[in-house]
Specification:
Chain A is α/β, with parallel strands linked by helices. Chain A is 28% helix and 13% strand. Chain A is built from seven helices and five strands; from the N terminus they run H-H-E-H-H-E-H-E-E-E-H-H. The chains are: A alpha/beta, B alpha/beta. Chains A and B meet through helix 2, strand 2, helix 5, strand 4 and strand 5 of A and helix 1, strand 4 and strand 5 of B.
């Protein structure tokens, strides 16, 4: 009995297809069935040597395309959109500490419903969160005082024209920001950030923004508790050029940008203040990213 | 010699191509040509702007002088183009193009009051210039105020962030030919440094 037909051929892997079985010969029929079973379970096909190499290359290429750039935290990194928007003045420090200098960051705070939170109450809370608490928990002073925050005496809208333009950051408290694109969405309760007044940074060769506006909603970021503090620090992180996670559950390092208080399904940062990774990332942005 | 290519080999190659192609498309590298995206690499701020373009809206009482107004705006933009950083800032190698009529004729009526809409496909105009007659300027800008600036268009840059990509400049007709209009207002509108720094004064700033 010839069993050779059941053996896979390395030279002609499909030669077995040409075996002509005689339906009248039981032995031949058995052999044909055997051949078919072998073809289903143990292919004679042996791919060319370059196929594994090709797959390895394809997977490597796919990884390079799909994987986000390696980042220490939510770093300011050039992506398909170029540099991440951030505040221009954070690149420099002003000398002196008697008042806001030209390279310092002034901020105003405004409540859009003073029956919920008064202007001064909101301002004091923002001030305490950004400036007034332990030095390792606040943005103020970061990068050897390149971030040097000073509050204005009055609400944002009390200033007009060039004076308001000179205030680098505005914090607004309200019920919703439905009238602002991207802040409202379906539910209307999002906290968000708006960058205004693009300006050329000749030192680093890219565009920055002169002004950032933070919009907080009373239902989350506008609360006067640790959750509110977490959102103030998160949105202010955007002002310094930090990004949200790439997707829910993307938690590369502990960060206020995906702290438990602000969502994103991460559990590796439960505090309301920026992590050491966040401070390091902001310093990278300061140095031109 | 022609070698016969096995069907499974062809399938392997097709699957490899599908893997790489699919992921590339999903990563956004396959966006259709001309699709606008935000960029901070140059002052035009939107990827599908290849040259500096400004639109000009002239107030109705000034209609009779419209051509002269457009020529003056072009001349002022040429002054800004002489700024030392114009080219490095990526504002275009050619002379700015000036077009009569802006996408939002009613912008001055809302000036300074509400944020502008976010557009997925911003206009080609980096700067929108509104030339106002005396009465309109008094009403919109305020008596004695010669010019004002604000966002004309925003882009949604993701993650609940909005960024200004077009800037509106409102100017009183009598101030249009003033060198300070180019040196201060227009230069600032396109993000170029001016002699006026941020003094930090006027707000009673405290720590």
């Amino acid at each position: 009995m010839d069993h050779r037909a059941a053996q896979p051929s390395t030279l002609f892997p499909h030669r077995d297809e040409t075996i002509a079985a005689s339906p009248r010969t039981p032995g031949v029929i058995r052999r044909e069935l055997t051949v078919h079973r072998v073809r289903r379970t143990n292919s004679n096909y042996r791919p060319p040597r370059w196929i594994p190499l090709g797959w390895a290359s394809a997977f490597l290429l796919a990884l390079l395309v799909a994987a986000p750039p390696a980042e220490a935290a939510h770093r300011h990194v050039p992506d398909e959109n170029g540099y991440v928007p951030h505040l221009n003045e954070m690149h420099w420090a002003s000398a002196g500490d008697n008042g806001p200098g030209g390279n310092d960051e002034q901020y105003c705070v405004q409540s859009h419903d003073t029956s919920v939170v008064g202007h001064t109450t909101a301002r004091n809370f923002v001030r305490e969160t950004l400036v007034g608490l332990d030095f390792d928990k606040i943005w103020d002073g970061t990068g050897n005082w390149k971030i040097d925050l000073w509050y204005t005496q009055n609400p944002c809208s009390s200033y007009s024209g060039s004076t308001r333009e000179s205030i680098e950051i505005e914090y607004h408290y309200g019920h919703n920001w439905n009238f602002i694109p991207t802040c409202g969405g379906t539910y209307g309760y999002y906290n968000c950030v708006e960058f205004a007044q693009p300006t050329y940074n000749s030192t680093y060769g890219h565009y920055d923004y002169t002004k950032g506006k933070v919009y907080l909603v009373f239902s989350s970021g506008g609360q006067l508790n640790t959750r509110g503090r977490a959102f103030i620090n998160h949105e202010t992180g955007h002002i310094w050029g930090l990004k949200d996670p790439n997707y829910s559950g993307h938690c590369p390092t502990p960060s206020i940008m995906h702290g438990t208080a602000v969502g994103y399904g991460c559990t590796n940062w439960t505090a309301w203040y920026p992590s050491q990774y966040d401070f390091a990332s902001v310093k990278t942005v300061m140095a031109g990213g | 010699m022609i070698r016969r290519v096995n069907a499974r080999t062809v399938m392997h190659v097709a699957a490899m191509a599908a893997l790489v192609g699919g992921i590339t498309l999903a990563a956004g590298f396959g966006r259709p040509p001309g699709h606008a995206h935000f960029t901070l690499d140059g002052g035009l701020l939107v990827s599908n702007r290849s040259e500096f373009r400004a639109c000009v809206e002239v107030a109705e009482p000034l209609r009779a002088r419209r051509e002269a107004v457009l020529a003056e705006v072009a001349a002022q933009l040429d002054r800004v183009r002489a700024h030392r950083d114009w080219t490095a800032a990526g504002l275009g190698a050619d002379r700015p193009t000036v077009t009569a009529g802006c996408p939002d004729q009613g912008l001055p009526e809302r000036f300074g009051r509400e944020p502008t809409a976010a557009s997925a496909a911003p206009s080609p105009y980096r700067v929108w210039i509104y030339v106002l007659d005396g009465g309109s300027a008094d009403r919109v800008l305020g008596p004695g105020v010669d010019a004002g600036r604000g966002a004309a268009e925003h882009m949604d840059v993701g993650q609940r962030r909005l960024a200004e990509v077009s800037t509106a400049v409102l100017v009183r007709d009598g101030y249009l030919a003033d060198p300070r209009f180019a040196g201060r207002e227009l230069a600032t509108a396109v993000g170029l440094a001016t002699e006026d720094g941020d003094s930090g004064d006027g707000t009673g700033g405290a720590k």
